[in-house]
User: What shape does this take?
Amino acid sequence: MKYDFDTLTDRRGSHAVKWSVGENELPMWVADMDFMTAPPITEAVDACARHGIWGYTLLPDAWYDAYISWWRDRHGLAMEREWLLFATGIVPAIGSIVRRLTAPGEKVLIQSPVYNCFFSAVTDSGRQVKDCPLAYNDRTQSYSIDFHRLDAALSDPQVTLMLLCNPHNPTGNIWDRVTLGAIGELCARHGVTVLSDEIHCDVTDPGVDYVPFASVSEACRDMSVTCIAPTKAFNLAGLKTAAVAVAEPALRNRVKAALHADGVSEVGAFAVDATVAAFTQCGPWLDEMRAYVAENKRTVQAFLQKELPQVKAVPSQATYLMWLDCSALPGDKRDLARFIRENTGLFLNAGEMYGGHGGDFLRINLGCPRSLVEDGLMRLKAGVEAWEKGYEAVES
Assistant: This one.
C-alpha cells in the first residue's frame, strides 16, 4: 500500500469526542476514524491556514465541480450545479428539512435499527416517528425490507416524509437498484417525499458500489432530497462540511429556505478547500482505505467464528462499522456494553439506541489501525466470557 493505515496517532487531549475516555479505555464507538486523512486534504487545509484571514466565504466553481465530477464518475449520478446546496453537516440539515417539509404532529417514517439521530431529528422537531422495522433473518444474519409492511406504513395519511439510510447504518446494507426503485414507487403512490442520508456511500467494500436513490428513476430523482458529504470517507467531521442535492426546483427552494432559516448554510473556508481536495485528489487514498477496512471486517469475522461463536457479525458491504448479534448471550445488552467497558475498557455502542430489535446488538467501529482491532477483539472476548461466567454463577 502507498498509504499508511497502521500507524497509531494519539488523539487523547485533542478534544476528540471519541477519545475523551479513561486512560486504559479503547473507544470503538462513535463513527469517526482513527486514520490520518489523505495528504492532499492536509496540504489544502495547511495552505488555507497560512493565508491567515478566514472571513465570510463564497462557494467557488471548484466546489460544485468537485461534487458533480465525483458523483458522475464514482456513482453514475449526473447532478447539475443548481441541485447543490452547502450545509454545515448532514445531521443539522436533516433536522431543518424535517421541520420545513412536514407539519407539527405529522409522522416521519424510518426503518429501524437505524442511525440514532434520525429519531431525535424527528422528535425534537415536534413530529412523530413512524417506525417500519427492517426484516432480520437470524439464521443468515441478514436484513431486507418487508414491502407489505412498508406499503401499509406509508399509507398512513399522517406520514409525509421518509428518512432513508443508504447505505444503511448500523447494518452495513447497500440497497440495490430494484429495492430503491420499489421504495420510490411506494412513496410516489402515497405522496411521501424521500430524504436520503447517503453519508456512508463512499465507504463500501472494494468492488462494491452503492446506488444513489436519485439515480434510479426520474420519479425518484424528483421526489427526493439527498444528503452527501466527504466527512465519513475522509474523516472530516470536525470541519463541518456537507451538501444537500435536490433536483426538483420547487422542492429545492423549500429546502434552501430551511437551511438558511436555521443558519446551517454558512460556508467555511476550510470546509470548501478540504472538500475540493478530497473529491479531486484523494480517490487512490480512499480505495486503499476501503481495502484496509474490508480486511478489518474479515479479521473480526474470522476471530468471532473461532474464538467467540456466540457473537455473530452481520455481513456488511458498506461503512467501517460492524453490527454484532449478541442475542445468544444472556441479559440486557445495555448492561453487557457497560460491563465490557467497566471490566475491559472496550467502549462499544449498545444497539438499543438504534431502535427496533437493536437491543440484542452491539456496534463496533473498525475505522482504525488493525492493532486496535485486534486489541478490541481480545477485550471483547474477555468481557463476554466474564459476563457469561457471572450468569452461570448466579444460575448455579
The two ends are 53 Å apart (CA to CA). The CA atoms of residues 34 and 368 lie 5 Å apart.
